[in-house]
Write a structure and sequence with these properties.
- Helices cover 59% and strands 0% of the residues.
- The longest helix is centred in the first third of the chain and has 26 residues.
- The N and C termini lie far apart (47 Å).
Length: 121
């Protein structure tokens, strides 16, 4: 099944914003996976696992088949991609997003808080 270009589907502003956030989370997941491999990990890191869960929450309310590749955050790294996704999800009022987006936002904030705690000495 070929992905449907997002320009061919009539998406609402909330869906377009959520799709952009999902693409950033997909990028964050790829970065977390690379970090796990670089560290020699056999099992996914907690951050990689959380990114996978965030991605699932992000794509569930969207139409099927939308491509997730291609997002590039302003700064490199998994946490920076998640911060960019958080900023994207703050762009519109919560009622503009599809139902279920609030769960994504809450978990995204929790993951970022945990990442901050992990990075402190």
């Amino acid at each position: 099944m070929n992905p449907v270009p997002s320009t061919q589907l009539p998406l609402t502003a909330g869906q377009r914003s959520l799709l952009h956030a999902a693409r950033l989370i997909h990028h964050a997941h790829d970065e977390a996976r690379r970090d796990t491999i670089r560290a020699g990990g056999v099992f996914p890191s907690w951050l990689e696992q959380d990114c996978a869960t965030l991605l699932l929450l992000a794509v569930t309310p969207l139409p099927e088949g939308l491509p997730l590749e291609g997002a590039t955050p302003g700064l490199p790294g998994c946490v920076n991609a998640l911060l960019a996704a958080e900023a994207e999800l703050r762009r519109l009022p919560i009622y503009a997003y599809p139902p279920g987006t609030s769960r994504l936002i809450v978990m995204l904030c929790d993951v970022l808080a945990a990442a901050r705690e992990q990075s402190q000495p």
